[in-house]
Amino acid sequence: MSLPRLDPVRLALVEHNLERLVDSGVIAGAVLGVGDAAGNAWFSTSGQVSVAGSLEPAEPSHRFLLTSVNKPFTATQVLLLADEGLLDLDAPVAAYLPEFAAHGKGAVTTMHLLTHTSGLSDTANLVEGPTSSRTADDFIAAALGAGLAFEPGEGWAYGSPGFWVMAELVNRLTGTRYTDALVARIAEPLGLDDTRYELDALPVDRYVDARTEGDWDGHLPEQVRRAGYPAGGLVSTAPDLVRFGQAFLDGTPEAESLLSLPVRERLRERHATGWNLGRPVEWSLGWERRGPGNFQSPRTIFHYGASGTALWVDPDHELVVALVTANWWLSYQRYAEVMNSVLGAIRA
To answer: How far, in Å, CA of 167 to CA of 40, rounded?
Structure first.
């Protein structure tokens, strides 16, 4: 499907840029998707991915571990609760989860969790550690019982344990397990047929094997996936990510069925600032603002994941850009190159 706002000749340059990243060995395989507010979508693929140990040409149907691109999905589950009047973002989390007040956390709000200003200690981030037999409920208990690294609202530190806390808010306020609630309240209404927490052992249908690098022995992707990690265990495809992103563009059917306009407007505002991985960042409600690139609007919301995944939603250009790859730890510069090439294709 074509995108009327993008020039086909310039889109060919976008494809060339993706192929260049593969040819230079930066990534092994990738799917890039772009969508607009009219519901149109365009996809480009390059390279190969490993599925059940066999190499295949990358295709839009391939399913990838989202890692931290999962965070906007969990944030959306929480914002749905707020939209429905079940949760006050500015109320103490302990008003809903009394045990969370332990160790001085009585003043922490859901707003603090969404903006990484809660001070919740990252020592509770056990799922990203050594091989463990702990369950999701164990990880939730660890996050609920954690201490503070700083007073809520008095600092900024990117962290993931707060997403276990938000998963438990979903559990209790909906009466449905957060993994199932994601399907019922987001995936099914938006038609995200391939977006699921896959908690069983391999093989998972069309699932791309993670290409971990560094000190890990390969256990981590499987551990976060099988734990149903609400900050990184979700599995999805590029088309599903584009459709999810379109739900944050005003005027789309997806937007009207998900979050109210006032909540979408709050998402585009800056709620916190910090310093992450050597660069200054602005943070919204579960999303970074603007993200990598030079041409997107300041109201753009963005998130990326360690597994080489990324999602931008630019409300002013009315475009969504999704990238899924088979490689971990892509640099911010590479993401910027992708976004710049896409926005460079906008018709004058």
So the answer is: 32
